[in-house]
Design a protein that fits this description.
alpha/beta, Aconitase, domain 4, 47% helix, globular
Length: 394
C-alpha cells in the first residue's frame, strides 16, 4: 500500500506537458539521423511535408517545435496532420530566435504554445497546433492552390528551356559501368510508403532480378530489406557510409555550374564516382539515367507521382520531376501498380472448380483408359487384401 501511495504522489508531482531532450537542426532530414525516442525535435521547416513528418514519427519524437510556420497557406501540405494524428504535439512558428535560446541536449517541457526550460523559464512561445487548427488551415490553403499551380507551370517551362537537350536527346548523360540495356530497373527513393512498397515487391525482385538503383537514402532502404543496390545516385546528403561502401557503382548528382557537394565525401571513402551534372532532383537523375541506358521497364518506389506530392515537396524544382516523368513515361510504372498486378489472387470459387475438374478428369481416365483399368484392378486387389486383414483382426 505504501508503494502504491508513493507512485500516486510521483504521478501528481509530475509536471504537465511533454518533457524531452532538445535536438535541433535547420534541415529536418539531417536531424532525423540523431533523434532518439522521446526527444524534442526543433526544426526550421516551412510547410512541413509528408515525408519529413513520417520520418519524425518513425523516430518516435516526443514533440516538435518549428521555428517556421508548418502551414504557410500556399498549398495543403500533409505533414502537420500526420504528426498530430500520431499523437506528436506541435508548437509552430516560434521564431528563428529559438535556435539561439535552445541548445542541443537541453531538457525542456512543451505545454500548450510554450517551451519551458528545466527551471520553468519560458524559452520560446508560438502557436499550438491541433487537428482542428490544421484542418482550418488546410481549408484556407486549398483556396489559394490556383496560385501555386500557376507558379508550378511557370517553373516547369523554365526547366524545359534550360534542360531541353537533356530531356529530348539525352545530352550530358554520363557513361556508367552497370549494364541496364533491356533489363528491368527498380528505382528506390526513401519517400512515400517506400517500406510498404518494397515489402510487396519482394516476389517481383526475386523473379525478375531487376537492377536496383538507390537514390541517396534509398540505398539504405534497400539494404534494410536485405537487398544490395547495384547503383547509387544522388547528392549524398542523406545516405550512410555503409551504403556507399556496399560495392555499388556511385553516381554523384552535380549542379549545372559543376559544383558537387557530395563528391568529396565519396572520394574520402576511397570511391571514385561518376558525376552527372543536371538541374532538378536526384530522383530525376536516376530516372533519366535508367531511361538513357536502355532499361526496358522502370519501377519507381517512393517517388513523387501526383500534383499534391509535387507541391508537398515544397520546392519549385519539383517541376523537373513532372517533365522527367513525361520523358520516361512509356516505361515507368509506380510500385503500387506493380504490386497490385503482381499480387493478383485467384478467387476461392475458381480454385474449387479447378479441383473438381481435376477429380472428374481423373475419374474419366480411370474408366476409359487401359492404364486406368489396370490401376482399378490393382486397387481392387489391394482393397480385397486389406479387408481380409481387417476381418482377421476381429
Amino acid at each position: 500500500m505504501r508503494f502504491a501511495a508513493l507512485r500516486r504522489t510521483r504521478a501528481v508531482d509530475q509536471p504537465p506537458g511533454t518533457v524531452g531532450v532538445v535536438r535541433l537542426d535547420r534541415r529536418t532530414k539531417n536531424l532525423t539521423r540523431r533523434l532518439r525516442p522521446g526527444d524534442i525535435a526543433v526544426i526550421d521547416h516551412v510547410d512541413l511535408d509528408r515525408v519529413a513528418a513520417e520520418a519524425l514519427v518513425s523516430c518516435q519524437v516526443g514533440g516538435v517545435v518549428n521555428v517556421a510556420p508548418s502551414v504557410s497557406g500556399r498549398y495543403p501540405n500533409l505533414g502537420p496532420d500526420i504528426l498530430l494524428a500520431n499523437g506528436v504535439p506541435l508548437i509552430d512558428d516560434v521564431g528563428a530566435d529559438a535556435f539561439g535560446q535552445l541548445r542541443e541536449g537541453d531538457r525542456v517541457r512543451l505545454l500548450g504554445d510554450t517551451v519551458f526550460g528545466a527551471d520553468g523559464s519560458v524559452l520560446a512561445k508560438g502557436v499550438e497546433q491541433t487537428l482542428d487548427t490544421v484542418a482550418s488551415s488546410m481549408a484556407d490553403a486549398r483556396e489559394g492552390l490556383s496560385a501555386q499551380l500557376e507558379a508550378f507551370a511557370s517553373n516547369t517551362m523554365e526547366y524545359l528551356r534550360r534542360e531541353r537537350d537533356l530531356l529530348l536527346d539525352g545530352v550530358g548523360v554520363p557513361d556508367i559501368a552497370t549494364d541496364l540495356e533491356g533489363r528491368h530497373v527498380l528505382v528506390v527513393v526513401r519517400g512515400y510508403n517506400y517500406r510498404e512498397d518494397l515489402v510487396t515487391l519482394r516476389h517481383y525482385v526475386r523473379e525478375y532480378k531487376p537492377v536496383l538503383i538507390g537514390v541517396d537514402g534509398g540505398a539504405d532502404a534497400l539494404l534494410e530489406e536485405g537487398l544490395k543496390p547495384h547503383l547509387i545516385v544522388g547528392d549524398m546528403d542523406s545516405i550512410s557510409d555503409t551504403a556507399l561502401k556496399c560495392g555499388a557503382e556511385v553516381v554523384v548528382h552535380a549542379y549545372r555550374d559543376g559544383s558537387a557537394p557530395g563528391l568529396s565525401r565519396v572520394q574520402d571513402l576511397g570511391i571514385e564516382p561518376v558525376v552527372f551534372a543536371a538541374a532538378g532532383t536526384s530522383e530525376d537523375v536516376a530516372l533519366l539515367l535508367a531511361d538513357d541506358k536502355g532499361a526496358s521497364l522502370i519501377v519507381a518506389v517512393g517517388t513523387h507521382a501526383t500534383l499534391v506530392e509535387f507541391l508537398d515537396k515544397g520546392r519549385s524544382g519539383m517541376a523537373s520531376t513532372f517533365l522527367t516523368r513525361l520523358r520516361v513515361g512509356g516505361k515507368l510504372i509506380d510500385a503500387k501498380g506493380v504490386s497490385r498486378l503482381y499480387r493478383s489472387r485467384i478467387p476461392v470459387t475458381t480454385l474449387v472448380l479447378l479441383v473438381l475438374a481435376a477429380a472428374v478428369a481423373f475419374a474419366v481416365a480411370l474408366t476409359v483408359t487401359p492404364g486406368g483399368q489396370l490401376y482399378r484392378e490393382y486397387f481392387a486387389t489391394d482393397w480385397h487384401q486389406f479387408t481380409h486383414w481387417l476381418r482377421g483382426l476381429f
